[in-house]
Amino acid sequence: MPDSLPPDASRLKFGIGQPVPRNEDPILLQGRGRYTDDLQLPGQLWCVMVRSPYGHGTLNGIDTSAALEVPGVVGVYTGADLAEYGTLHCMMPAPGLTDIQRPVLAMDKVRFVGDPIAFVVAETKEAAKDGAEAVYADIDTLNAVTEASAAAAPGAPLLYDHIPGNQVQDFHFGDAAKVAEAFAGAAHVTKLDIRNNRIVVCAMEPRSAIGEYDAASERYTLHVGSQGVFGMRAGIANELLKVPVEKLRILTGHVGGSFGMKAGAYPEYLCLLHAAKVLGRPVKWTDERTGSFLSDYHGRDHEVTAELALDAEGKFLAVRLTAMANMGAYISSVGPLMGTSGFMRNVQSNYTTPLIEIATRSFVTNTPPVTAYRGAGRPEGNYFMERLIEAAAVEMGVDAVELRRRNHIRPEQFPYAAASGNKYDGGDFTALMEQALEAADWKGFAARKAESKARGKLRGHGIGNFLECTAPPSKEMGGLRFNEDGSVTIVTGTLDYGQGHWTPFAQVLHQTLGVPFEKIKLLQGDSDKLIAGGGTGGSKSLMASGSAIIEASAKVVDKARIAAAHMLEAAEADIEFEPHAEGGARFSIAGTDRGIGLLQLAAQLRQAKDLPPEVPDTLDVDHIFDQAPMAYPNGCHVVELEVDPETGVVHIDRYVTVNDFGTIVNPLMVQGQAHGGIAQGIGQALMERTNYSEDGQFLSGSYSDYAVPRAVDVPSFEFISHSVPAKTNALGVKGCGEAGCAGSLPAVMNALVDALSEYGVTHIDMPATPEVVWRAIQQNR
């Protein structure tokens, strides 16, 4: 079996490149999906969390006596009851980080509104709620701080006695002296203060989990929405339960969105497992939307000074980001990633910037912890660079499109060693941008602007070039199971939480091994079935699982060739494999019409007796794909929008996106991923605002106060592919799941600033709500 794809596969109905509808859709649309909250286990109890109503305070004690008297309540637990367990903390390498060991339940202090301090278990959810309301917490309130810059100010309230100035990390990348020299010698320097606003994740499905414990085997089971059961098992078993991983099973069914938020462990999960062990019954918890706003990890939240140095011809000399990152009250498992290596790897984008410097200080505040949110530093880095380019073009009197052309990495420069330390394997950046401008009728903008002006509206257009560095594919399982009913199951450690993995994975297997598309199943959410698993995140799933499937298919062919030679009474060297022979995948004797089908062979091996030792008794394979370098999806978004100067309302009128996602396995699904990412980018740019009071109360803690895009808020998208296959994985794919955010943030905000430039506006921060836009107009009128 070759390590690449059959050359004729593009002609297959269900092969790579075909817009095959998602296998999951009939199940979900018919209400047959099974999310965690759909599960009801025999003897199940209910859990409700007791959360801090204050942003910051000293926790003097908790009185649970009244709660224990509530009918139906069977247990109330505080931090003292969980003393034997471990803590939550940062799980990624983070240079210079002062890590915080977060107790599962707060014990000495409460540090944000929603900080869990106890939990109640009862026979019904209603009884658990009544019990939770009866818990009394004696809290002396303290002053709170909710912004990184405020946390850094002299005299700011301290969240931890051992962390002076609330600073938990001082990250630096780049040669400061060389960068300073480049800025000192630059013909022009552009400088912008940019806010990367905090985001509430707003996954469709709130978090939910059920804990079980089997006393006989001393084994835990957790049903929970996640982004990968293999990693979740390791984190909870090793860090919290402090048991061998084989003593914990993680089961994940359908998941209604995550975007990074459900990747790691949360306090509630250990609470459920502890209660299940103590009470001898399954214990269930499902969050409500208010609880989600208060306790789910948030995204983004950086205050950045961005600078770009250029020579007299407009060539980029250096880019420098000086940032403050808000970690929230505790540090999530990947909290420091976004404002450090996320900025560093992605601010380069697709430009030949020879020097990069990133200086980020991270602070704790009285807010929920921050974690990865769709892109995890990649949209941010591209946003900063694109805003700098637009501002520099205005300041220098240079056309912004031409400024990009002058600085794009050219095809003949690949492989390109970027200042970030990454090595780009290929791309066609200028041609891709030109294609986007042509499709958007960039030259016809002036006429449309005049027509808008005649109606009393402001029109602007903007470009969002982007190149993002995906997460490098980690070790991933590519298991294949030949089932008795003639189907084949793919076993993988990545996990679909809305992406639709089943279909593209099946397309890869259909193409490489010739298994009929309709006979392919997917198993992905049971940690007991896995031998490896990197989970889903960083736009790497198809790079990892696709490569694992290709390599596992090769192992199946190797095993099957031996078995076919035995069954056909021929030499192994004479056995040929045709994955797409008429009638199905087939092994045959070269030069003859004698052969056997792949699925027929698998069935005969199941029934065979007394096979020679060299002949396998099954075609099943358990394979681990080792790893691969990261990939570099890139593209250009072009936006036109209108602004009503009397109200500040922004309407996006036209949207074109041209993307290089490498080999596209399923164009229908890739477009869907792009659309979703763009919509989330529009939400962050124009709508989604998190507000806190001075004492740390969350003022935008519901959909009455926090706006997310609806259908009327997003335009129709024109999606065009300009693919340059990656050279670092067998499929040539580059990842697409988060790219929509990376292109939409700069495209939308550049278009908005362009529209407001008539009033002298040179920059406006996200979220540019109607009020913010209206005030900017009034201040410059």
TrEMBL record:
Alphabetical list of SMART domains matching this protein: Ald_Xan_dh_C (SM01008)
Residue span, Aldehyde oxidase/xanthine dehydrogenase a/b hammerhead domain: 30-143
Top-level taxon in the UniProt lineage: Bacteria
Species name: Teichococcus aerophilus
Entry-linked Pfam families: Ald_Xan_dh_C (PF01315), MoCoBD_1 (PF02738), MoCoBD_2 (PF20256)
Keywords carried by this UniProt record: Molybdenum, Oxidoreductase
Name of the protein in question: Xanthine dehydrogenase family protein molybdopterin-binding subunit
